[in-house]
Structures are given as structure tokens and as C-alpha cells.
């Protein structure tokens, strides 16, 4: 398969049809491992950490955000004839609405390097005209808080302290008041969050205009 002029059909189309794209006819066979197993594997975080250590983790970018993990696996199989396990990266508040990303775990380091090399040297176009971008993935293990132990408090003493606190308690608001430092910090945080959302929104809006303009120019050619 020549990546320089290759173009993949939409992953939701029939698997056993030959599709013609320009000068190339691409046969889309059924994946040999297309059947999903009902056996539950290891947690994804553990598999991703292991793949990162073994060099089999690849980050694929520029997908349509509507793609599913199964469709990404189909694209990798049709484009490179390599089986893999893929997972679309969940979007967050500041994620681009125009592009999706997926982490892909290959069976061998050689397969992962081959896919990245072919994407660097050639150009694999998806059905919507997007070029697929790939790189060796990285994974940083999240540091979990360490719980060193617990303190044993005498039950009777704890009950006496609680009764004393209830007697001495005064009515107070659970919300920050305008005359407190917490209130000022919260208002400042809300202002910064609004500014951040506005900046990201304007950026993605501009990107959307540029993408539509580029697609129109490509169709005109």
C-alpha cells in the first residue's frame, strides 16, 4: 500500500467492498481479530504504562472527534495491516472540537516504529481528507496520595470533645463571605477561568474558519 496517495474509506462502510479513490483501489478486508472478546483484560492504565515501557505505545492525531476506539483499530488494520488496541482520548473543557486523538498499543515495538515512520515519510488520508499524524506515545504515571496510617482516638474522649464542640458551636454560613480571603480568591479564580474559556473559544472558532476555507480551496482544485 502506497501511503503517499492512499486514502481510507470511512470505517463504518462495508468491510468487503473494493473502494476506488482516484488512481488507487483499496480492498477493505475483514480484520482477522475483528471479533470482540467478552473477556475483561487488565486495566487500561496498566496496559498503557507497560506499552510505554516497551515502546509499543503510539499517539495518533487528527481524527474526527466522532470516531470510536473500534473505528481507530479498523483504520490501523486497513492502513498498515497491523492489529492493535486503541482508545480515544477523552475530551476535556479545552479540547479542540475539530480534532481527536487516540492512544494505540501495538503488539511489538517494530510495528509501532513502522507505523510512525510511514506516517512521517508518507501521507495517509482518512475518508474526510484529513492526514493521519502519529508519534511515539508517552505516559506519565499519576502520583497517588500516600496514606501512611491512622490515629487511634479514645472513643469516650472523642464523644466528649464532640459534645463540647456542639455546645460551643455558633451559627455560621457554609459559603465564603465577601469580607474573607477565600471569597476574593474564589472570585479571582472564576475570572481567570472565564478568560481562559474565552481565549480557547476564540482560538477554536478561528481554526474552524481556516479549516472550512482550506476544504473549499481543496475542493476547487
Topology:
Layout: E1 18-21, E2 24-27, H1 44-54, E3 57-63, H2 69-80, E4 84-88, E5 100-106, H3 109-121, E6 133-136, H4 155-168, H5 181-220
Antiparallel strand pairs: 1-2, 3-5, 3-6, 4-5
Detailed description of the structure:
With 221 residues, the chain is an alpha+beta fold. The chain has two domains: 119 residues, Alpha-Beta Plaits (2-Layer Sandwich); 44 residues. Helices cover 41% and strands 14% of the residues. The chain has a four-stranded antiparallel sheet. The longest helix is centred in the last third of the chain and has 40 residues. The protein is flat and about 75 Å long.
Please describe the structure with a list of short key phrases separated by commas or semicolons.
two-stranded antiparallel ribbon, RNA binding, 5 helices, Protein ANTI-SILENCING 1, disordered N terminus, Alpha-Beta Plaits, RBD_domain_sf, alpha+beta, Nucleotide-bd_a/b_plait_sf
The geometry reads as flat
Order of the strands making up the biggest sheet: 4-5-3-6
Q: Would you give the CATH topology of the largest domain? A: Alpha-Beta Plaits
Largest sheet entry: 4 strands, antiparallel
Determine the number of helices (DSSP H or I, runs of at least 4 residues).
5
Mean pLDDT: 75
Rounded to an integer, what's the Rg over CA atoms? 26 Å
Ends distance: 25 Å
Which stretches are poorly predicted, pLDDT < 50 over at least 5 residues?
Answer: 1-5, 11-28
Region (Disordered): 1-23
Protein name: Protein ANTI-SILENCING 1
GO molecular function: RNA binding
Amino acid at each position: 500500500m502506497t501511503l503517499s496517495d492512499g486514502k481510507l474509506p470511512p470505517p463504518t462502510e462495508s468491510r468487503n467492498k473494493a473502494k476506488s479513490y482516484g488512481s488507487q483501489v483499496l480492498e477493505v478486508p475483514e480484520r482477522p481479530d475483528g471479533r470482540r472478546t467478552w473477556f475483561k483484560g487488565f486495566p487500561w492504565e496498566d496496559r498503557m504504562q507497560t506499552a510505554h515501557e516497551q515502546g509499543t505505545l503510539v499517539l495518533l492525531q487528527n481524527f474526527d472527534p466522532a470516531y470510536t476506539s473500534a473505528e481507530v483499530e479498523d483504520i490501523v488494520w486497513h492502513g498498515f495491516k497491523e492489529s492493535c488496541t486503541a482508545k480515544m482520548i477523552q475530551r476535556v473543557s479545552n479540547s479542540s472540537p475539530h480534532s481527536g486523538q487516540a492512544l494505540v498499543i501495538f503488539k511489538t515495538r517494530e510495528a509501532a516504529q513502522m507505523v510512525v515512520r510511514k506516517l512521517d515519510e508518507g501521507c495517509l488520508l482518512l475518508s474526510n481528507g484529513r492526514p493521519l499524524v502519529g508519534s511515539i506515545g508517552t505516559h506519565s504515571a499519576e502520583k497517588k496520595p500516600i496514606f501512611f496510617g491512622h490515629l487511634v482516638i479514645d472513643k469516650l474522649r472523642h464523644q466528649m470533645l464532640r459534645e463540647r464542640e456542639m455546645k460551643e458551636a455558633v451559627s455560621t454560613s457554609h459559603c465564603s463571605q465577601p469580607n474573607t480571603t477565600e471569597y476574593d480568591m474564589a472570585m479571582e479564580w472564576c475570572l481567570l477561568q472565564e478568560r481562559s474559556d474565552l481565549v480557547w473559544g476564540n482560538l477554536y472558532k478561528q481554526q474552524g474558519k481556516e479549516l472550512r476555507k482550506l476544504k473549499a480551496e481543496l475542493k476547487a482544485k
